[in-house]
């Protein structure tokens, strides 16, 4: 084996320029593959992290997953019921005290009940459509996405006064209002109540900064004429991956629709899987192109060293050694390119991680490129490179092993 390795190194060194080009081709492919994988994986991880951080892991609402059974269906063997008039049912979650007590007994995390109603927020002659959300400040601290996102005031200001309201800075700008101003909330029932702006938050999400107003739960119940009612329970788990199991158990017990964050974003998560498939397909294509360079140089060496092959086989080297010789040459080029490519990939990732910029026009602020530092990316890119090198080296090696030394020495083609 050391003799075969020494011969392989001699063959590669004999074509220095072509070898360097082939190694650089593999290195560039590996480097760009690592950088692309780190950037795409970082973007995906950052996106999923934002989903997990900005939305409840389990959201229980007063909706039903399927239509309620009609009393007539229990009394008669009906096939279908037509002509039903919808009933204005605004009760929310029935018996909320018992529901929250049951959740408190086993939920591995935190939860908060709230009452959300649609309405209009007015100031001076301006008005903005908004979701008026009544919350319990103590419980809301554990689940709210706006905690820690305040640019003026804090979440604690909600409970500082009886009629305080927390709104986004975008809503405040549209209304022309500022901290300490008094705005009017009008519910869909036509009831109005004045609130003092206690704090301004900025989450970077336009829908939230422009369309949500947080008040005390009792104030939301008064404005919507729904005393002691709640219509949503938001749960934050210690382990977000347990959300489907928690949602299934809560829905089975309470009878209300409970949606895990995975279910709410199922189409997005499926799109991310498809994107990963595309990413690794592109990585494989890059390595395949690099493999053609390796195949070209090994084929050239095989052609030029035909007489050497004949002499070696005449001296007793078996076909297996011939295959092993040229396979080693391909693997050596692939390994050298992979090593240089890993260094190149690391340098590119580090350079990308230093890029700083800001985009706020779309509602999402990005101050740096999301990068995923993962050893797996280096392993996968190197594995693709070595696999391509092995295939590129094996094909000429198999042909070289089949050469007849007598025909070569006689000058046959």
Automatic annotation (TrEMBL):
Q: What is this protein called?
A: ABC transporter permease
Q: Where in the cell is it found?
A: Cell membrane
The ABC3 transporter permease C-terminal domain is annotated at 282-405
**Any Pfam family hit:** MacB_PCD
Taking every annotated instance into account, which residue ranges of this chain make up the domain MacB-like periplasmic core?
Answer: 19-252
Question: What's any one GO cellular component for it?
Answer: plasma membrane protein complex
Q: Which superkingdom does the taxonomy of this entry point to?
A: Bacteria
Which InterPro entries does the UniProt entry name for this protein? ABC3_permease_C (IPR003838), Lipoprotein-release_system (IPR051447), MacB_PCD (IPR025857)
The portions of this protein that span the membrane are 20-40, 277-298, 332-355, 375-395
**Its membrane topology, per UniProt?**
Multi-pass membrane protein
Q: Which keywords accompany this UniProt record? A: Cell membrane, Membrane, Transmembrane, Transmembrane helix
A biological process term (GO) from this entry: lipoprotein localization to outer membrane
Q: Which family does it belong to?
A: Belongs to the ABC-4 integral membrane protein family. LolC/E subfamily.
């Amino acid at each position: 084996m050391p003799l075969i390795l020494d011969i392989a190194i001699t063959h590669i060194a004999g074509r220095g320029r072509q070898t360097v080009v082939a190694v650089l081709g593999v290195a560039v492919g590996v480097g760009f593959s690592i950088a692309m994988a780190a950037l795409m994986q970082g973007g995906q991880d950052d996106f999923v992290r934002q989903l997990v951080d900005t939305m409840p892991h389990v959201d229980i609402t007063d909706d039903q997953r399927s239509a309620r059974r009609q009393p007539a269906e229990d009394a008669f063997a009906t096939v279908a019921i037509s002509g039903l008039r919808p009933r204005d049912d605004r009760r929310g979650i029935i018996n909320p005290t018992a529901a929250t007590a049951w959740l408190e007994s086993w939920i591995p995390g935190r939860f908060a009940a709230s009452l959300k109603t649609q309405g209009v927020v007015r100031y001076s002659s301006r008005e903005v459509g908004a979701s008026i959300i009544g919350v319990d400040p103590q419980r809301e601290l554990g689940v709210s996405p706006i905690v820690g996102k305040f640019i003026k005031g804090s979440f604690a200001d909600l409970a500082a006064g009886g009629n305080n309201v927390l709104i986004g800075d975008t809503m405040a700008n549209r209304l022309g209002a500022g901290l300490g101003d008094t705005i009017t909330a009008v519910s869909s029932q036509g009831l109005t109540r004045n609130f003092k702006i206690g704090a301004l938050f900025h989450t970077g999400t336009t829908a939230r900064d422009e369309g949500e107003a947080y008040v005390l739960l009792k104030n939301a119940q008064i404005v919507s004429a729904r005393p002691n009612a709640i219509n949503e329970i938001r749960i934050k788990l210690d382990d977000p991956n347990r959300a489907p199991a928690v949602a299934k158990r809560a829905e089975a017990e309470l009878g209300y629709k409970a949606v895990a964050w995975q279910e709410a974003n199922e189409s997005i998560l499926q799109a991310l899987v498809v994107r990963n498939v595309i990413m690794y397909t592109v990585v494989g294509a890059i390595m395949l192109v690099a493999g053609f360079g390796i195949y070209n140089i090994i084929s050239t060496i095989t052609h030029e060293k035909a007489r050497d092959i004949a002499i070696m086989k005449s001296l007793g080297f078996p076909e297996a050694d011939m295959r092993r010789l040229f396979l080693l040459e391909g693997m050596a080029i692939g390994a050298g390119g992979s090593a240089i490519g890993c260094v190149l990939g690391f340098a590119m990732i580090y350079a990308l991680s230093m890029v700083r910029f800001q985009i706020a026009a779309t509602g999402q602020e990005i101050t740096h490129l999301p990068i995923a530092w993962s050893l797996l990316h280096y392993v996968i890119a190197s594995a693709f490179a070595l696999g391509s090198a092995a295939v590129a080296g094996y094909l000429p090696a198999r042909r070289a092993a089949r050469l007849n030394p007598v025909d070569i020495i006689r000058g046959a083609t």
